[in-house]
Records
---
Amino acid sequence: MYQIIQWSSDQQVYQLSEEFSLIKADKDEWGIYSSVYYNSEYNGFFKENVYDFHLQRDPFWIYKGEQRIGGVVIAPNVLYLLFFIPPFHEEFQVVTLLKKALLRWSDPSKPIIVYEILQDHVDFFSRAGFWPDEFRCKWMQRPTELYALNWDEDMIAIEPQLAAENDDTRKLINSPDIERFFYECNMGSIDAIRRKQESADCYKDMIGSYAYQTNELTLAASTLVYDRQSNRLIGACLVSWEGYFPAIYNIGVLQEYRGRGLATNMLKKALTMLKPHFPILRLYVMQGNSAESVYYNLGFKPGPLEVQRFHLPNK
């Protein structure tokens, strides 16, 4: 059996077998190939994407001998954005070699995760022994548009604000209330089960991270809705950045206030505020989430379904 060398962030070439190797790629060139070959249906949905903004890690070309046959982002315990260049058709052999490399490089106390597996690769990873998450997700998008917004008289709609910043930290004003709100919205929901969000504390990191993924424009497109009488937070829609485009970070309405068009109004507000600046708004939704019908009814178009994660369980 061919012995794969140990992982190093400085290593330029990894020999996976006598035939196949990984060679570190230029991110810009690799992104162009990825935007064509990653998946034609998926890339047709994200028409403008070359995946440079996704690449916190170095990408690699996959070679068979002297022929470039694909690309992947791979590092200890993680793999994503695997693609193959036609007419190559030995995909399963490459997936098994990548699995062997991951087993060689990864921390055995942690699972090995493969992210966002599209339908044309699901069978390869399943046959290689990776376990799929039970949840299927998809991106949705629609053009931004100007709407006349009408809020019920018993509701107050405001924009979330960042607290005064220092050099090290950013946070939302009233972030504990917003954390508690999303916990109350999602208790027992399919989304909360998927994310293992079993207590209010689980939402601290989510809201904390949001402060670093937003700015004045996306805050202006976001909404916090309060009950005028009780001053209780009853609805929230947070808009952030996904690459170069705005996306819904999280949206929710308390159970007893649902069915009154609050989520639709908050999405219309985001579409209206973003219209002068961006052509589209995106969101990511899990299949079976009750909010799907709201998105469809407002004209959001779904992209291809994906398995959010495959994993090899840690020992």
---
Amino acid sequence: MPASYAYLGPEGTFTEVALRTLPEAATRELIPYVSVQSALDAVRAGEAEAAFVPIENSVEGGITTTLDELVAGAPLMIYREVLLSITFALLVRPGTKLSDIKTVSAHPAAQSQVRNWLRSHLPDADWESAASNADAARLVQEGRYDAAFAGEFAAARYGLEALETGIHDFPETAQTRFVLVGRPARPAAPSGADKTSVVLWQRDDHPGGLRDLLGEFATRGINLMLLQSRPTGAGIGNYCFCVDAEGHISDRRMAEALMGLKRICLQVRFLGSYPRAESGPEDVRPPLLGTSDEEFVAAADWVARCQDGRF
């Protein structure tokens, strides 16, 4: 496997900035790809060791392109996550004034994060989506659009200037979550502050179906951090569910929850157990009564003794 990481490019994306916060990125060749799909396909094809892509932001929720790519195709697994605070700059060709701007561009996920600013400052500008914020900056450089919402750090790379900085409708809380995705392998040992990601398909559509799925987590005291439905492509009303849950697959309560889901679901896709970003064991809530590993082991031992007539 080549010692390279694919990422959503071109150079100058928030994805690249987040990727460079990983210590191992300094020892890998970092290769930009034009889309999330192509970056993940590079891993599937063996052209890259892993891919680094956005998966969620605090304003719009899950990045559907990434979720759909992880749901479909050859299985991949998440190994790491990174949280990055996001603030946009309005990048323009030198000499451009705000009154000159008729078209603006950025990644679709950026639109919900600057919508109010755009309405207040450029109400008549036409929005055009780009493959990434950095790609929008490149298109401004080429003269296709008048301005791009991107990181201020991208200005010098594309010969642009930041006409406005610090742009965000939610400046104190805006974050994007990125994940490092590779081919399936044994998950890393638990860190004490972990997250497990799965995709769930129901066997059929029936009243209480989603409750049945969530009950496998709830009865074992497992907190959910993300729940998002995605269409399966099999017609209106057919959905699968992307779930992030607190804990590691090696935890007894998580392992039992996954076994329960495997019994009742049409399909379960395991996307990995990995350390939670910016969290440590001290940030993890204690397990509910009856859901610690020790209590699961004690209960299993009791059942075994009953089966042997040793109760």
---
Amino acid sequence: MPLRDLLLGLSIVAIWALNIIVIKLGVQELPPLLLTTLRFLLVAALLVPFHPVARHQLPFLVLLSATFGTLHFALLFIGLGHAEAGTGALLVQMGTPFATLLAVIFLGERLSAKRLVGLVLSFGGVMVLAGGPSLPSPLPMALLLLSAFGWAVSQLLIKKGPNIAPMGLAGWTALFAVPQVALGSWWFERDQFDAMAAAGWFGWGAVFYTAVMSSIVAYGIWYGLLRRHPVSRLAPLSLLVPAGAVVLGIILLGESLNAHIAFGGAMVIAGVALIVIRFRALFGR
């Protein structure tokens, strides 16, 4: 990979790793569902006017907004409000093993020995993380794993759904997710207007960063790299995101690195690597 593209890939890793920290800080000033709603509003406002879609694609986008917008993003924001940022980033990586299992069950894909070992390692890593002090209750783990499951379901829907440009997909999914998440905020949260009035740099910065930097800038660069390089060359870069989030959590939030996070996280990342990386393609064989 040329140095320029490698640096672009590493910049994406940094943006996505910092995104976990930004969400964690943002939910300290804004309720998580309100923060998610504001994020979706900004994404939709910036993308929908410039990326029209066909009318027959709208039902698919509504369905995707429920799995990707509400199930994945809303639960991610809620879960990170109750778990350490590094642990949350590691648990969200379980979206890949979940997607693999769903593809085997519903799409009839073959489960090779390498991918089976990856699944065992990943789920074993979650069990190690669950035994550590980073999750004070089962609730954050359940929410973050459900968020990962929502991501997995969304990937299968995208794979089998209509061909829609990535930025159009992001914009319209965000638009249709707004009323869903806003209803959840109205039902479960209180004093939203007071929270918005009192929010400072962390709250409003999280709205901007998660919408513009993470969803639009980073994904725009990522899709550009995908057009120039095979997935097998880019997959290893994506595995640096949870490791980066753990390091940033320690540096910026004062989180601790204990044996459960170190060993459990290594198992999860190694398992996901076995699932997503085609090593023969990676080494040109």
